[in-house]
Write a structure and sequence with these properties.
The complex is a heterodimer of chains A (about 600) and B (about 425).
Chain A: E1 13-20, H1 26-36, H2 54-59, E2 66-73, E3 79-86, H3 94-102, E4 106-112, H4 119-130, E5 134-140, H5 149-160, E6 168-169, H6 178-188, E7 201-210, E8 214-223, E9 225-227, E10 231-234, E11 240-242, E12 245-249, E13 253-255, E14 258-260, E15 264-268, E16 282-285, E17 304-310, H7 316-329, E18 334-340, E19 344-351, H8 354-368, E20 372-374, E21 381-385, E22 391-394, E23 406-421, H9 425-434, E24 438-446, E25 449-457, H10 458-462, H11 465-472, E26 478-489, E27 491-498, E28 501-502, E29 508-511, H12 515-529, E30 537-543, E31 546-553, H13 569-584, E32 587-589, E33 592-594, H14 596-599
Parallel strand pairs in A: 1-3, 1-4, 4-5, 5-6
Antiparallel strand pairs in A: 2-3, 7-8, 7-16, 8-15, 9-14, 10-11, 10-16, 12-13, 12-15, 17-19, 17-20, 18-19, 21-22, 21-23, 23-25, 23-26, 24-25, 27-28, 27-29, 27-30, 30-31, 32-33
Chain B: E1 25-30, H1 57-79, E2 89-96, H2 104-118, E3 120-130, H3 140-146, E4 150-156, H4 160-165, H5 172-184, E5 189-196, H6 203-215, E6 220-225, H7 248-257, H8 263-279, E7 283-286, E8 289-291, H9 298-304, E9 309-312, E10 317-319, E11 323-327, H10 331-338, E12 351-355, H11 358-371, E13 376-377, H12 378-383, H13 385-395, E14 403-405, E15 410-413, H14 415-419, H15 421-425
Parallel strand pairs in B: 1-2, 1-9, 2-3, 3-4, 4-5, 5-6
Antiparallel strand pairs in B: 6-8, 7-8, 10-11, 11-12, 13-15, 14-15
Classes of the chains: A alpha+beta (about 600), B alpha/beta (about 425).
The complex binds guanosine-5'-triphosphate, iron/sulfur cluster (SF4) and magnesium ion.
Chain lengths: ~600, ~425
């Protein structure tokens, strides 16, 4: 394939991300940019074409940032190479956004003309400013009858000091304003720096595993150049290999002969071991290596932890393999082996949030054909041991030290920003203070909308705070949060006993004052979630040896196909097969079959 | 066929051999009812299709005769014509719907045709399902003359409020009248179908129905827990499916009724009935069926013993020893195939089939056998991979008191096991 883009000089390269609050139209805008630049033919176009993962399409949200190379002939008659990165909007993925921004000189800030500035708008703008990027503000969805571009411009000016002259009004749906956006990208965003003739330094920002090409790494070249048949070296692992292929994303992988400083592309390394090529490592040329690697990324900080276990113990090696491969494609979760008395051998995993946890589980199940059980999620505690024996980090309630070993427990706090119409302020204040939160301050975005700031324990936030926020504001409020350090707390471990046996995977750390109430609510919920068995199953919550709540799942009395005549045996057999499948999806703990939902019962308790 | 064939030796009984065999029973489905009951899952149509000038009954009967002919031709081709060399039918069953809506002469005509084309054994059981209502129960004397030996009445309840709730046309007094008339006409066996676990049905309500039913001195009782299924969700109601789509009114009725059912109460109702019937000398020969000794339904036993049976009519199911086959439920498609417009050659109606492999056959044999009081041979259970674990589970106390081993080396469900049988069966499939 002869490709002119290799001729595009560095001065005509532009790297930018599209950032916004969730659902404000980033991926739809990306669709229009792909179309206008003929990267994808109109007839091959689907909506949010970059959301190619099944899960993304089902949920209608972007989960993973996606890079694409566009070629755009501007009004000045010159052809520019644009590297676009579409980013996710959900709060769990702000780490993904910040990594994307590090590969760019500019960002398209998309704001919904009907919604205005939301919590992630603010968070993402701050990330972009911290990276020193040029921001191109776009007010999107101006086609909506409820669009209020004037009000939103006002907000941008007041809250983010973005002058209204810079704002482009657009409808990603209808294509309005998109040509202006392309011109602005060329005019306003500076080209990448980096000497093409210096020794090669390429930052690995993502990767995936291909059974033919081995580990395929996605790189942005900070300096130097990369050609076919070069021998590369990964600076952290020291591994070398002759590269099999290099290319760009259009958005499918298209091979090219050369990548130069400032460009974004992929390299098929041929390496078989996923551990040899990690995200954040620096790629260099083995013959003329760079003196030092690039700074890499701050490792993602896991906030939520849960055990992942195979439903059937024999699948443990498959799970380990799947975690390794998935980790290539999502470096933001952590995993290490652990074992549970109830669930057997599995892995303790750290996630960026609950949505991230759900997505990792679903991807493992779908992409690797595994059936999994997750234990109750937890945050990570700092436990100060008695007699000056130091501090241990505990992210698994089952491993909490005995009470007499604990001097003090500290739990993680977060600073929560909530953007809401003023009429819901009261309801959201109440919600947050009920969650042990403290109110910090309030700022008016415009006469009808405010930014509220709270601090609260992270553990309180992960338990359906977001759902509650949405339901108490009829969907209008949005939120974002950031870490706010560890603080001492009066916490105790709540053990759950099923059929008289403690089930470690159900243990929780809870606030002492509310321990009994939480125990009652949890046990009541478990009674609903654990199906009736052939025998009576008591479910108890205990603090130490003190039982604080008890319910009984009564014995099953009837499970019968009353009628078995009319000769319709086939249907009966299918019904039985369905029952069998249902049972196989549950985890046997002792002699009790417990479904996945029960392990997540804490997320769906009544307040 | 799966490689499991070599591993499984599911008993030596002829019933499980995977050879096609001629039928020992015939089922005829008559899909018409005076009105539709909201809980009903049978293939039934009512309204103008079932009466008046645009009734489809006449066309249906023509089609049924054509289907009987085609099925008989096929059997002749496989097994030779009926006669001394071929198994004659031991049972004929008119099910529905409400077959008692057909005139007795029609039944007589159909039976004559069945005898001619399939061969009807001397003393064969001939069952007809009937509704107890005055305008739908038929004339028992004429039916007896036509050859019917067994009448099965869809009584469901003997309490007026429950009959209303169930959308039934008859009153409880009609049940008594119908049974008395059948007995007076000399019908050899009279069955009553009764339902427990009705929405809001108290324990006392159930006892009342049961005692009123026993006072009528029936010969056979089928006691069914009301089961509110959703055949649409099971994917059974497509054009070739063996069920009809659920009407929206019926769906709403079921949704209202389900929360007013109760497994615990149902279990109590069942165990109560089982012990009363045992005390009075009834033979509980299947999970839901009781007979005075000698009145067991041979037709239903053929199903449970996996003997081959032929079937005609919309939604009817047949089995030849290796293949389970069914007709689609929809009347239009049934009529169109068998009575083609323009006088073309009739074809068999749409439907589906399933070839059993040895493992499926073995599981079926165990499940159906365990449903009856004959149980299954211990070795047959052990021969199935899951079967041996059943003993393990039973020993480990998990399937506590669900099965017992008799001195005759046969395994049977306990009375607790009968109500929890799916817990066992779902481990066998
Ligand atoms: N009316 C209108 N709807 C739009 C426009 N742009 C996007 N949408 C709709 O807004 C919804 C969200 O669009 P996406 O492009 O998926 O938003 P996103 O910002 O990529 O969302 P996340 O990746 O989940 O953060 C979709 O239903 C789009 O069809 C627009 O200009 N006008
Ligand atoms: S009478 Fe019987 S077959 Fe007819 S609708 Fe009622 S339950 Fe169904
Ligand atoms: Mg998106």
């Amino acid at each position: 394939m002869s490709r002119e883009d290799q001729m595009i000089p560095q001065a005509r390269l532009r790297n930018f991300s599209i950032i916004a609050h969730i659902d404000h139209g980033k991926s739809t805008l990306a669709d229009r940019l792909l179309e206008l630049t003929h990267t994808i033919e109109a007839r091959q176009m689907t909506s949010q074409v970059l959301d190619s993962m099944d899960l993304e399409r089902e949920k209608g949200i972007t989960i993973k940032a996606r890079a694409v190379r566009l070629e755009y002939t501007a009004r000045d008659g010159l052809t520019y190479g644009l590297n676009l990165i579409d980013t996710p909007g959900h709060v769990d993925f702000s780490y993904e956004v910040s990594r994307s921004l590090q590969a760019c000189e500019g960002a398209l800030l998309v704001v919904d003309a009907a919604q205005g500035i939301e919590a992630q708008t603010l968070a993402n703008v701050h990330l972009a400013l911290r990276e020193g990027l040029t921001i191109i503000p776009v007010i999107n969805k101006i086609d909506l009858p409820s669009a209020q571009p004037e009000v939103v411009m006002e907000e941008l000016e007041n809250v983010l000091a973005i002058p209204r002259e810079e704002v482009i009004l657009a409808s990603a749906k209808e294509g309005t304003g998109v040509p202006e956006i392309l011109e602005a990208i060329v005019e306003r965003i500076p080209p990448p720096k980096g000497d093409p003739d210096a020794p090669l330094q390429g930052l690995i920002f993502d990767s995936h595993y291909d059974s033919y090409k081995g580990v395929v790494v996605y790189v942005r070249l900070a300096q130097g150049r990369l050609r076919q048949h070069d021998t590369i070296r990964l600076m952290a692992s020291g591994v070398e290999s002759e590269l099999l292929e290099l290319g760009v994303f259009r958005p499918q992988l298209v091979p090219v002969k050369e990548l130069v400083a400032g460009e974004v592309g992929y390299v098929a390394t041929g390496l078989k071991s996923v551990r040899d090529a990690q995200v954040g490592d620096t790629l260099t040329n083995a013959k003329a290596p760079a003196a030092a690697p690039l700074p890499g990324y701050q490792p993602a900080k896991s906030l939520v932890f849960a055990g992942i276990y195979p439903l059937s113990g024999e699948d443990y090696p498959l799970l380990r393999d799947a975690l390794e491969k998935l980790h290539l494609n999502d470096a933001s979760f952590t995993y290490e082996p652990e074992s549970s008395i109830a669930l057997g051998f599995g892995f303790r995993c750290g996630f960026l949030g609950l949505l991230h946890m759900e997505i990792v589980q679903e991807r493992l199940e779908r992409e690797f054909g595994l059936e999994l059980i997750l234990s109750a999620p937890s945050v990570s505690y700092h436990v100060v041991l008695t007699h000056g024996r130091g501090v241990v980090e505990v992210d698994n309630p089952a491993l909490f030290p005995a009470v007499n070993e604990i001097e003090e427990i500290r739990e993680p706090w977060v600073r929560v920003s909530v953007v809401t119409p003023t009429q819901y302020i009261g309801a959201l204040m109440e919600l947050s203070t009920n969650r042990r939160g403290t109110f910090l301050d309030m700022e008016y975005l415009d006469p009808q909308r405010v930014l509220l700031r709270f601090e609260m324990p992270l553990a309180e936030l992960i338990v359906d705070y977001y759902d509650q926020l949405k339901s108490r504001s009829q969907g209008y409020a949005s939120m974002d949060y950031e870490e706010a350090g560890y603080r001492p707390a009066s916490l105790v471990k709540l053990d759950i006993l099923v059929a008289g046996e403690p089930v470690d995977a159900l243990s929780l750390i809870v606030h002492r004052d509310r321990a009994a109430a939480t125990g009652r609510a949890l046990v009541a919920r478990l009674k609903e979630l654990i199906p009736r068995q052939l025998f009576e199953v008591p479910v108890q919550a205990a603090i130490g040896s003190n039982v604080v709540a008890r319910e009984t799942v009564r014995a099953m009395r009837k499970n019968v196909l009353a009628k078995c005549y009319g000769g319709d045996i086939t249907r009966k057999r299918k019904l039985l097969e369905k029952q069998k499948e249902g049972k196989q999806r549950m985890k046997r703990v002792g002699s009790v079959e417990i479904p996945q939902e029960a392990f997540l019962a804490m997320l769906s308790m009544d307040e | 066929m799966r490689s499991i064939a070599g591993r499984v030796s599911p008993g030596t009984g002829s019933s499980s051999s995977l050879r096609p065999r001629p039928p020992v029973a015939l089922y005829l489905h008559v899909p018409f009812c005076r009105s539709l009951c909201p809980y009903c899952d049978f293939v039934a149509v009512a309204g103008s299709a079932a009466r008046g000038p645009s009734s489809r009954i006449a066309a249906f009967l023509d089609a049924l005769v054509v289907e009987l002919g085609l099925r008989a031709d096929a059997l002749d081709a496989r097994f030779g014509p009926p006669g001394p060399g071929r198994q004659a039918l031991e049972s004929v069953y008119f099910g529905g719907g409400t077959p008692s809506l057909l005139p007795a002469e029609t039944i007589a005509g159909l039976l004559a045709l069945v005898d001619e084309r399939f061969g009807l054994a001397f003393g064969a059981e001939v069952t007809l399902e009937a509704n107890p209502g005055r305008d739908e129960r038929g004339d028992p004397r004429a039916l007896r003359k036509a050859g019917v030996t067994r009448l099965s009445f869809g009584a469901q309840s003997l309490r007026p409020a429950e009959l209303r709730l169930l959308g039934r046309r008859h009153r409880s007094a009609d049940v008594a009248d119908a049974v008395a008339a059948a007995q007076a006409a000399g019908i050899g066996s009279v069955n009553l179908d009764l339902l427990y676990d009705l929405p809001g049905q108290s324990f006392a309500d159930w006892i009342e129905t049961l005692e009123a039913a026993l006072a009528l001195r029936p010969d056979h009782l089928s006691l069914y827990a009301l089961t509110l299924d959703d055949p649409d969700a099971e994917g059974l109601t497509g054009p070739a499916g063996d069920h009809l789509p659920v009407a929206s009114g019926a769906r709403a009725w079921r949704e209202r009724a389900r929360p007013r059912q109760d497994d615990d109460r149902a279990a109590g109702q069942y165990h109560y009935a089982a012990s009363v019937l045992a005390r009075d000398g009834w033979h509980g020969y299947e999970i839901s069926n009781w007979a005075r000794p000698g009145h067991e339904s041979r037709h239903n036993l053929a199903y449970w013993e996996r003997r081959p049976y032929e079937a005609v009519g919309p939604g009817a199911h047949a089995f030849d020893g290796t293949v389970r086959r069914w007709n689609a439920a929809r009347l239009d498609g049934y009529l169109a195939a068998l009575l083609p417009a323009g006088g073309g050659a009739p074809a068999l109606p749409p439907g589906g089939q399933e070839q059993l492999d040895p493992a499926m056959a073995a599981a079926e044999e165990l499940i159906l056998g365990l449903r009856t009081d004959r149980g299954v041979r211990r070795e047959a259970l052990l021969a199935l991979p899951a079967g041996s674990s059943i003993f393990g589970w039973a020993l480990a106390g998990e399937l506590v008191e669900l099965v017992q081993l008799g001195e005759d080396a046969r395994v049977r469900l306990t009375s607790r096991g009968r109500l929890l049988s799916n817990e066992l069966f779902s481990r066998l499939v």
